[in-house]
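If it is no trouble, might I ask you for a protein's amino acid sequence along with its backbone structure tokens?
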Amino acid sequence: MPKTIPSKLAGVTAPVDEGPNRQVVIKKCLHPGDYLILEREPDNPEDPFAVKALIDPMDDPWGEAPYHIGYLTGRVSEEVATALDESQEVTCMVTEITGATKSIVGVNVELTIYSVQESIEIFKRRSDKYEEAMKREQEKRQRELDQKLAFSLQMVAIASENKRKKSLAVRAFFGAGFLLMALSTFRALPDETFLTRVIAFLVFIAISALCFLPELRLQWGKFSARSKSRGHQPGSPR
């Protein structure tokens, strides 16, 4: 069973070198039920078992989190420091902000120390949750990439279709022009040169057909592809 220890933070009124005053941070950002971050400070010259408490508020008015707001006290600090050094799980929950009506406030906390085996189980559950979160994030990113790729392909297809239509319009213009030239030539030549008229007519008709040949090949390819796909559908007649 985890061990629960009620305690209070020390040093909540101590000055800080940088950032907002500890009292200001506590009054603005700390609430009962919040969990504090515990961090060992083995190089502390006054206490080798020093454990400092920090807060990382979601709504950070200064943008410099986390903030050091105090230390654990006396024997509690020694017990918690030993547990942290042995990689045991320790939580620190704020239970009360004392002296709220006064200029100086204090912080009461409840510490929970888990055994090594309990800490291992907590670590496993945390790892599983982390892996699930990472998996969901990867799936989300993959869906976004797929959507972007599909959109890009759609834009390329639209641009290609527009280009094809413009090209078709140009070819239709020249094809119609050559067809008119064939008719004009056929009518303009004298009757006694009938063979020459026919040859000229056929030449202009051939040139006109060449203008539409790429489009005819494209449409024939699409028709063939659709026919093959229908022929390979399960249950389709052979």
User: Anything to note?
Assistant: Strands lie at 3-8, 35-40, 51-55, 67-71, 90-98, 106-113. The chain is about 55% helix and 15% strand. The mean pLDDT is 82.
